[in-house]
Amino acid sequence: MVERRKPIKVQDAIQRMMNYKKTGSVQYVPIEDSYGHFLGQDLIADHDVPFFDRSPYDGFAVRAMDTVGASRSNPVTFEVIGEIGAGSVFQEEVGKKQAVRIMTGAMIPKGCDAVVMLELATEYEVNGVAYFDLKRSSKAGENISFTGEDTKKGTVLASKGTFINPGIVALLATFGYKEVPVSVKPKVGIIATGSELLEVGQSLEPGKIRNSNAYMVYAQVKRAGGEPIYLGQFSDDFDTCFIQVSEALDKVDFLITTGGVSVGDYDYLPEIYEKLGANVLCNKIAMRPGSVTTIVEYNGQLLFGLSGNPSACYVGFELFTRPIIREFLHTNTPFLKKEVAILGADFKKANPFDRFVRGHLGFKDGRLIANPIGLDKSNVVSSLGQADILIQLPGGSRGYEAGMEVSVILLEDQEGVSFDSFIKQDIHSKRSKRNEGRYV
Amino acid sequence: MVERRKPIKVQDAIQRMMNYKKTGSVQYVPIEDSYGHFLGQDLIADHDVPFFDRSPYDGFAVRAMDTVGASRSNPVTFEVIGEIGAGSVFQEEVGKKQAVRIMTGAMIPKGCDAVVMLELATEYEVNGVAYFDLKRSSKAGENISFTGEDTKKGTVLASKGTFINPGIVALLATFGYKEVPVSVKPKVGIIATGSELLEVGQSLEPGKIRNSNAYMVYAQVKRAGGEPIYLGQFSDDFDTCFIQVSEALDKVDFLITTGGVSVGDYDYLPEIYEKLGANVLCNKIAMRPGSVTTIVEYNGQLLFGLSGNPSACYVGFELFTRPIIREFLHTNTPFLKKEVAILGADFKKANPFDRFVRGHLGFKDGRLIANPIGLDKSNVVSSLGQADILIQLPGGSRGYEAGMEVSVILLEDQEGVSFDSFIKQDIHSKRSKRNEGRYV
Fold it and tell me: Start and end of every MoaB/Mog domain (chains A, B) (predicted)?
């Protein structure tokens, strides 16, 4: 009676899904609200930096030609004809053997082409007029930050889709983005299924557990950059469920369900997909946990049928829904960064499917350590909050031992990588497995 | 004329400041809004997990005593008297040689003390009654997840002050936190100073630059977990500035100013502190950039006088203001995590002060690489958005070379460390410096 499902590889599931990726629109938010959004357009320099020739130090602006020949035995004397602070413009033209006291960041006065550092000038006053002696010559251009030497007007400083961190905010301010074009966050609907589920505010009763997956995924959607919408739990009645899904599709960009994708009597989703006439892209993926993860397309819209098992639900979201959300936000690097780490525990039992184990990233002597969490019965729940990596263990006929190199997917990463990089790292992981003896 | 200031060590400045740390209050937010907040109380299990003895697999619940002696040549036959899905309770008591078909997660029926996995049962039907033959005996307790074996009621699952990530949200839901106690975020006021500053919406003019520090710090406050309040720019008039600062102190928990802390004529802050009668904890710190960073206490309230130089402003915030904000949020680990990385570029020029260089964390063969950014004149601005570490280079008489081990402070870290760990890592860094030959 049990339906036979053919498992496909994780990367094949991603590729099928990516055929239906969508990109959202752009809205403007005040710069104060931009942190945590994603650039909706490339961030472009609207002016040269510096915008004018300026002094990088406190000192005296001079004409370099007047310093020629200055030495300890033959100092040159300059008359200080004024002072210029940052933000001001010195109005007069500076003449022969004249100098202007200049502050860090101030504009070089007309006529000057060098700045003498404060400590090289011996200052004194005669009859209320300020002078200094200089015992070293300056070259033209010395101690001047020239217009555009940092950044030319028109330079792309960050690409669309970039996560807006404090450094990006500084750039936005520098270049006059009072209103910042940001990617509109996709609306991601969440429906929980499972007759054993109580809502979070309900008292426990025998046989039941509280619905934690929906809230977990809700937070994962936020972390990924989406706008989650919790649409409640499925009813026990098939027709009502069908209407729930149909109506949800009109309200959201993507729809996630948790649970109900296995082949049991209580699992309505395969039937709902069929009745919708949806295109099932995959309903079995060669991965643990989460092999029942189902991805479906209906009228160009993606539906993610995540597992009801909390670990599988978590992993399915990060591998599949997360990059689809980031694509919507205009980035070219929608996948989480993968790096090499040393496995911190044994996984002696072989598994034909690729495993993605939640873990906590440790560091030892400058190396990354992949510490699995929730392996023991006694800490599945309590260790959940520590997860910041997925440890990827390619499927095969052999197990893994502590000390081997493995790939880890960095869950808190904001930079991201392309699909090609995401997949390339797998190859490395397979290689380490073949050569596992080397790494023990 | 120039005031002499005595530099103190970074760790001494932190310790002086920590004498005036404050802890905020607690408020309740709906669980949906809890992601990105910080736990205001310890997260405690309100029930055992599992809450009842349950089946970890699909199978048949049986009485182990009935399986005694079952073997290939002598199978035991069981009558299947019912079925139980997750969320349901089987009402009858299971008797001799009886079994109940049980789904993953469902409660073990009364009388049963073992679960036989589906693949070990040979099922058949006789006159509409379901049976299965079993060819192996089960032990009492086999394939049962017992009440409380994962987590005991009352266990502390995460400490107050913990950043609420998706895993923590799952725990909050599991344990019935429909409303979550979160730390109230401190109000952090920001005032920008500098006569060269234009506001972000203003057109550029000669000699001026747009105010980027205030917006950068605004985002840094958010990342740290505070609630930033931008109070605008200082006026050019001392008395007005004094009133601005005095009034700001009534509205905020902490006050940041950017710029105006040097000893120049345009730097009002030292004078304002004096007129307030504030207690200057430090006005010179042995660090680069940011040696002018000034920390002041007035009636128990901390004022951070950050440098007007963007790098110095950024670094001063992360080293000093950030831990004060995290303390307010109830954490015991308010400092950013420090790890060992391989330096990616030369810093040949020695500096007597500790340097904190903004950098981008790279990875190579499982090792952390510290890539400095903004070192060349040509990319100070454009590389700003990439900063995710501060590279710490202890002061001394020698420079640093690419390939040496250095400490890096992880700017995106949410876990944090205690003051002791933060300082301990410094010692390591000093050691690597002494042994630098080894690491090149």
Answer: 189-327
